[in-house]
Amino acid sequence: MDIHTTDDAVTRRIRFFTERVMKLRENDLYFYNQPIEEIKGGSRVIVRGREMGMYASYSYLGLIGHPRINAAAKAAIDKFGTGTNGVRLLAGTLTVHTELEETIAAFKHTEAAVTYSSGYVTNLTVISTLMGRGDYVISDKLNHASIVDGCLMSGAEFRRFKHNDMADLERRLQQAPGDVTKLVVADAIFSMDGDVLDLPKTVELCKKYNAWLMIDEAHSLGMLGKTGRGIEEHFGLDDVVDIKMGTLSKTIPSVGGYVAGRKELVQYLRHASRAYIFSAALPPGQAAAATEAFKVILDEPWRIEKVNANGEQFINGLKHAGFDTLLTTTAIVPVLCGTDERAYKLTQICQHRDLFVLPVVSPAVPEGLARLRATVTAAHEPKEIDHALDVIATAGREIGIIQ
User: Fold this and answer.
1) Tens digits of per-residue pLDDT, 371-394?
2) Neighbours of 87 (CB within 10 A)
3) Smallest Cα–Cα separation from 276: which of 147, 127, 125?
C-alpha cells in the first residue's frame, strides 16, 4: 500500500495546505518566502530585481550591515573558522561564546547569561526544563507560539489569562494551589499587536502569589528603555524579572536566543536543558556579531530615539487615514484589514507598488482580525514613512477598508 495516497489525517493536512497555497499563487496572492537578493541601507531591499521599501523587518535599530558588526564577525571567522567542534558542554565553547554571555549579562544587569541556537528553542527548552508535572505555568493568551509550545512540552498544568488583563491573571494565580510551583510567562512587546505588557502589575501579582516571572524580550530589546535595555528600564524597575529571555536575531542582527538571570539559574540550565546539552554551539561569526551589536546599541543611543519616533509617525499616520492599529505603541504596527481576503489584497496592491509588507491571516490570528504586520525601523527616514503611508492608505481606500 502506498501510504501517500491513503486518506489519513496527515494526507488531509498536507492536501489542505497544498491547495491553499496553490489557490493563492494562482491569484497572485502568495507573498511568503520571497527571495531577497540584497539589503540596501536597512530600509530597502531588492526582490526579483525590484527595489522595494522594507516594512516587514525585525531589525528595529537598523543594525544589519553595520560596519562594526560585520568587522567583528569577519575577525571571528578568521580566528575560529565558520563552525565549532560540537556541543558546548563537551567540545564547542569558544572564548567568543563566553564574551557574548558576559556582554548580555552586563547589558541586562544580571549575574550571568546562557545562549541557545534560536529564540524558539530558548523558550521551548527553558520552560520545559524549569517546569514539570504538578507545577502551574500561566501564560498571556497572545504569547508567541514558542512560549505555548514550551508550556505544553513541560507537562505542567497550563493556564492562559486574557491578554494583558491583570484581573484575569490574578484569577488564574488564585486557582493554583498555594503549595505548587508557579511560573508566569509573557512577551514584553506582543509580536502581532505591538502593545506592551503591564509589567509593574505583573510583578506585583507574582510577588503576592509567590510565582516565578519569565519575560520574553524578543521584540523589546533595543525598543524599550532609554538605553534599549528593555521593559524593566522602560518602567523604571530594577531586576524584577527572574528569567529574562531574548533573541539575537531581531534588533541584534545575528542568530540565537538567551536567558539572563541569577548565576544559579544559568548554571542549572547549562547542565539540565536539552537544547544546550545536545545542540551545537553558535557559529563564531554570529557570536561575535551579537557581542558587537550590544556595544553598538550603547554607543549609538540615537537609534532608540529614532525607531520610537518613526513608530509614532507611522501609527499616527495610519490612524489619521482611518485604519485600526489596535493598542500598539511601538514600531510593530498591526494594520487591521478584517477578512483574510482583504489582507491578501492590501498586500498585493502594496507589493505591486514596491512596498514590502506581509499579511498575517487565520489561524495565526483569529478570523476577522487579519492584518498587515507592518514595522518601521531606525533605518527609515520620515519621508520614506510618509510615502509608505500614502501607498497603504490609497490601497486601503481602493479595497474599502477605509473611506
Assistant:
1) 999 999 999 999 999 999 999 999
2) 15
3) 125
What's residue 5's pLDDT? 63
Task: Look up cell 531581531; give the residue.
Answer: 250
Active site (catalytic) residues: 191, 219, 250
For position 127, what pLDDT does the model report? 98
97: domain CATH number?
3.40.640.10
- Average pLDDT of the residues of the chain: 96
* 363 cis-preceded (ω within 30 degrees of 0): yes
Q: What domain range is 381 assigned to?
A: 27-56+301-399
| Number of domain units in the chain | 2
Identify any residues that bridge with 214 across adjacent strands, giving them in sequence order. 185, 243
Domain shared by 269 and 330, yes or no: no
Do 260 and 324 sit in the same domain of this protein? no
Domain boundary among 273, 299, 325: 299
Is pLDDT above 70 for 46?
A: yes
Domain boundary, last residue among 280, 299, 318: 299
Summarize pLDDT for 105-119 with one digit per residue, the tens: 999 999 999 999 999
- CA-to-CA distance for 50 and 35, rounded, in angstroms? 11
Residues 315 and 385 in one domain: yes
| Amino acid present at 277 | I
Residues 88 and 43 placed together within one structural domain of the fold: no
The answer to whether residue 7 sits within a structural domain is no
**pTM of the full structure:** 0.95
Does any domain span residue 16?
Answer: no
CB atoms within 10 A of CB 367: 11
From its phi and psi, is residue 23 left (phi > 0), alpha (psi between -120 and 50) or beta? alpha
Looking up residue 324, the CATH number of its domain turns out to be 3.90.1150.10
